[in-house]
Amino acid sequence: MKKLWKRCAAVVTALVMTAGAMGFSGLAGAEQVSAAEDSVTVYISSQEDGAFLHPYGAYEVKADLAESYGYEDDVTDGVSALDVLVRAHELIFGEGNVTDYLTAEDGSVSKFFTEGTYDFGFMVDGEQPHSEETVEYTGMPLSYEGYSVNQAKVGDGARVEFFSYMDSMALDYYPYIYLGGERVNNVEAAANSEIPLNIQGICIGWYGLAVDLSDERLWESVESAQMAWVDAYGNKTDIDGVVTDEDGNVTVTVPDSASVGEQLLLTAYMTEEELSSYATPLIMPVITIQVTDSGEVTGTFERGEAVDDDSQGGGTEKPTDPQVEEATVAVLDNALKEAQEPAFEDEWQVLALARAGAEVPEGYYRQYYDDIAKTLEEYDGKLREGGDLPTDYAKVILALTATGRDVTDVGGYDLTEIMKETYEKKGGTANQVSFALIALNAASGNKNVRMEAFEETLIDKLLSMQNEDGGFSVAGSSERDMSIGSDVDVTAMAVQALTPYRETEKVKTAVDNAVTFLTGAQKENGGYPLVESAAQSIIALTALDMDPATATEDKSDSILDSMMTLYRGDGTFQYGSVEGANDISTEQGTCALVAYQRYLDGDTAFYDMSDVEIQYVDTGAGSQGDSSVQNDKTEQQENGTANAVGTQTGDTFPVELLAVVLVLAALAAGTLIIVKKSL
Questions:
Q1: Engineering a disulfide at 502: which of 289, 508, 565, 610 sits with its beta carbon 3.0 to 4.6 angstroms away?
Q2: The CA-based dihedral angle spanning residues 49, 51, 57, 61, taken in that order and rounded to the nearest 10 degrees
Q3: What does the alpha-carbon distance between residue 386 and residue 127 come to, in Å, rounded to a whole number?
Q4: H-helix segments, 19-52
Q5: Does the structural domain 345-669 have CATH classification 1.50.10.20?
Q6: CB environment 287-314: b (16+ within 10 A), e (fewer)
Q7: Cα–Cα nearest to 182, from 197, 194, 195, 193
Q8: Burial class (CB in 10 A: 0-12, 13-18, 19+), 452
Q9: Which ranges of the chain have pLDDT less than 50?
Q10: What DSSP element (H or E) covers 364?
C-alpha cells in the first residue's frame, strides 16, 4: 500500500508539472527557474523506503514559506530548510495543502509526506548543516553542533535532500560518489561512454557531523548497490547487472540513445533482496549526467551559494531546575497523548506507562497486543516486511511483558523464538545483544520461556565485546567494529543487561568496570551532553540500587540533574543543544524518570518484571492466540490499577494527579488523547 501511494503521488506530481507549476525541463531541474529577491532556487529530492517521492528538480522557494502555514523557523534572513521541506510537500499535495501531511515543531519532524516518522534526516549540499561550535560526546569523534531543519539556512542553487532512515538505529549509509578520486554529483559524458564510479558510505546519523571526515574508521565501501536511472516522475529503472563490487566500484555506461544536451539522473540503492539479507540501507543519491559530444568523462561537485552563519541557528533559553516529580507526571501525560492508539513502534510509551502504573483508557494495552498480533500475522511471523532486527522483538517483548502478556503466544507466535532466530541470522551489535538479554531476563518469570542456553550465549557474547577501558562500543561487534571508542549509551545498556547475572564473578567484574567507565565519562556538571546517555545511565544505576540523583565529590551536580537541564517543561526533552522537542530524547528520558520513581518507591528495577503477573492464554481448542481471553488481573493492568508505582508500596507517586492532568489535557484538546509513532 505504501509503494502504491508513492506511485500515485508521482502521478499527481506529473500532472502538476504539466500545468507548468514546477518550472523545469528535461529529467532534472533547470537553471532557467529564476528566483525573486526574497527566494532561492534549490534542487530538491525527497525519499522514503527506497522510493523517490517527487521528481528531482530545481524549484523556487520563498523565504518564510513555512511561516505562511503556521510553522516556525529560526532563520532570520533568507530561506530555511524547513521552507524547502514545505515546498517539497506543495509539489505533491498542492499549495495550501501541507499541514495535513507534514508535522514539524521546534525542528522535530514527526510526519513526513503523510508517514509518521521519528527517523527524519536532511542534507544540504551533501553535508549536515552545522555551526562552527564543536562538542565532544564520549566514544564519538569531535563533532560540530548540528542544525535542525528549522535552523539551517539554504543558499541559492543548493542541493537539498530529505529522507527517513530505514535502519532502526539510523545506521543507513549516506553515499559519497567519486570519479577519478574526486567527489562528484554531476558528470559530463558522451553517449555510450563508460563512467567509472566509486561509492563510499558513512553512517550519517552517527558520524555526519564529525569534524575530521577523513578518518578512515568512519567509512565503508558500499557493496552490492544497484545502479538505476531515474525518470521524470521519480521512478527508478535498474541498470541490469550493474552493481557495486566489494570495494564500492562500478562502471555505468551512458545509453546509446542519449542525445547531446540531454540530462539523465542516476542513483544507487539497496534492493529488497539485499535488505532482507541485512545489508545496510543506502540513502539514494541523485547524480546528474550531462550528455555531451566530448569523448572525455569529467565530473564536478556542485554546491549552492554560501550562507552567513549569523542568520541561522537561533534558539531559546533552556529550562532550569524543573521538579522531577512534576516532570514525571508530565512525561507520562505526553506518552499517553503521543500513543493515542498504541501499536507496533509505540513500545517505549507502552513500557513507560505500564511500569509507572499510569491510568490508561480501558482496553488500551489490549489494543497494543492486538496490533502486534495483527502485524505478526500480516508479515508471516515477523514485525517488518524486511530488515527486522533483534531489538524490534526485544522491545515488543518488554512492552508486552510489562502489561502481563505471555510473549510465547502472541497470536500463536513465540516472540522469544523469533528474536533468537533473528539474532542468529543477523548476528548482534552490542546494543542488540544487550536488549535481547534484557528482554529474556524481563520475561524470565514467564513459565513458558525456555531460553537458558540462549541467555548464556548472549552473556558470553556481550562480555567478549567489552573494551579495555570497561566500556562498550557504538554498534561495535567482533565481526565488524564501526566504533570510534567506548560509548556511554551502549555501555549503560550493557550494564542493564548484565546486572541480573552479577552472581557470576566474571559478570560482576565486567559490570564494575563498566560503571567505572561511566563515572569517568561524566562531565564536570556530573552528567553527559545528551539525554539519551543520561537516561540509559539512570536506568543502569537504579538497577544497581544506586541513586542517580547523588553527585560525586568532584562533580557539581548529579546525572539526574544534568538530564533535567534538557527537560523543556512540557513533558518533552530536547536533543543536546538542539532546541525543540526531540522524540527519541523524550522517550528515553521518560523511561529514565519512571525508573527513578520506581527506585524511590522501593519497587523492582525498570526492566526487572518479577513483580508482573503473567496472564496465560487459554490454549484449549479454538482459543490459542485469542487476544480477548482475559482475567481479572489483566483487566486491572489495562486500567492502570495493577503493578502501579505508588500503589504497591504506598502513595508516593501521584497517580491521582496524573489522572487530573490527563482529564484537563483532554478537555483542553477536545479529545481524550492525541497521536504519535515511536522509535
A1: 508
A2: -40
A3: 28
A4: none
A5: yes
A6: bbbbbbeeeebebebeebeebeeeebbb
A7: 197
A8: exposed
A9: 1-36, 315-322, 477-483, 619-637, 640-679
A10: helix 364-378
- Rounded to 5 degrees, φ, ψ at 57 are 180, 180
Domain definitions of the chain by residue range: 1-164, 167-302, 345-669
Ramachandran area for residue 640 (φ above 0: left; ψ -120 to 50: alpha; else beta): left
- Other CB atoms within 10 Å distance of the CB of residue 464: 10
Helix and strand counts by DSSP (H, E) for the chain: 19, 27
For the entire predicted model, the pTM comes to 0.57
- Topology classification of domain 167-302: Immunoglobulin-like (2.60.40)
Cα angle 285-291-297, degrees, rounded to a multiple of 5: 80
Return d(Cα 107, Cα 577) in angstroms, integer. 12
Output the pLDDT for position 311: 61
Longest CA–CA span in the chain (Å) reads: 83
Residue 554 is predicted with a pLDDT of 64
Report pLDDT for 200: 97
- φ, ψ for residue 490 (rounded to 5)? -70, -35
Question: DSSP letters along 487-556, please?
Answer: EHHHHHHHHHHHGGGTTSHHHHHHHHHHHHHHHHH--TTSS-SSHHHHHHHHHHHHHTT--TTPPPTT-S
Q: Which residue has the cell 549509551?
A: 489
Tell me, what's the pLDDT at 309? 66
CATH number given to 1-164: 2.170.130.30
Residue 98 and residue 619: Cα distance in Å, rounded?
49
Task: Using the Cα atoms of residue 80, residue 82, residue 88 and residue 93 in order, give the sign of their dihedral.
Answer: negative
> What span, in angstroms and rounded, lies between the C-alpha atoms of 540 and 601?
17
Three-state SS at 624: coil
